[in-house]
Amino acid sequence: MHHGPAQVAVRREYEVRSEDDLLTVRHAVRAATVECGFGLVDQTRVVTAASELARNAYIHGGGGTLSVELLKRRGADGIRLVIQDEGPGIPDMGAAMTDGWTSGSGLGHGLGGARRLMDEFHVDTRPGIGTTVTVARWTVR
C-alpha cells in the first residue's frame, strides 16, 4: 500500500569508522525509532538491521557513513537508513543475500536479515567503488 511520496522531515549523519561508532549508531537509530513512533518490536527490527548494515560497512567496506532520515507521508511515518562505504564492493550479491553466508565475521544474517526486517531494501554495489544499502520501515504498511 503506497501513501504518496515521502518527505524527509529530519536527516542526521553518523561516521562508521570504529567499534565505538557502531555503538553510537545503535543508540542513534534507537532514539530515531522512538522519535518516529515505532513500537518496541519495530524499534528492535530497525536497530538490528542498522547494526548489521553498519557492521558490514565497518568490517568489509573499511568504514563509511550512515544517514538516518525520519520520513513523513500521508498516513504513515517512517525511517530510512542509508549506509555507504568505499570498500571493494560485493562480488556476489546472490551469495551475500543467502542466510548463513558470511565472509568470515558476523552472524551471517547481514543483508538477508536486514532485507527481512525492513519494508524497503535496495543495494547498489560496484567493485572498487563501494556499496550503498538503503532500507526503510514504515509505521503503517
From TrEMBL:
InterPro entries membership: Anti-sigma-factor_SerPK, HATPase_C_sf, HATPase_dom
GO molecular function terms noted in the UniProt entry: ATP binding
Record key words, sorted: ATP-binding, Kinase, Nucleotide-binding, Serine/threonine-protein kinase, Transferase
Keyword S-adenosyl-L-methionine: no
Domain Histidine kinase/HSP90-like ATPase, first and last residues per copy: 41-141
Domain of life assignment: Bacteria
Record SMART domains: HATPase_c
Pfam families: HATPase_c
Name of the featured protein: ATP-binding protein
Organism of origin: Streptomyces kunmingensis
